[in-house]
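ESCALATION

Customer reports they have been waiting on this structure for their group meeting. Please prioritize. Original submission:
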Amino acid sequence: MRTAFDFSPFYRDTVGFDRVFHMLDSAVSQGSQGYPPYNIEKAGDDTYRVVMAVAGFSEAELSITQKEEELLVTGKSQPGGEEKEYLYRGIATREFERRFQLADHVKVVGAGLANGLLTIELRREIPEEKKARAIRIESGVPRLSKQ
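Update from on-call: job pushed to the front of the queue and completed.
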């Protein structure tokens, strides 16, 4: 059961937080979707892995797109050549669209499909100018260079 939460009162009292409220709204609305099931794994200090159960889909029927801080995974099953009569159909192959909000500087570095599992490898690559750097301390009064 999904409880709708209205973020509009926060929009009038904040400036520049639109993205945060959009992410929260997306998380609330996606919480009710259970297909396809997935895991998010921490593979290392700056590496992550999204593993999705996509039984019945081929590589050609799956699409992975990264635009800024959003990862979009879609699956569109292609109609088969022959119609089958099922006595019981438990493997879902319906179309899906799954969105993930990525943190800053997280990039998709690869993807693979094996044994019905789609694995998407992610890595956080912080630019050099954003990394912490050590400042050397010298004795005496520091001198500013003139430009």
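Sent to customer with the following note: Residues 1-32 form one domain.
Escalation resolved.
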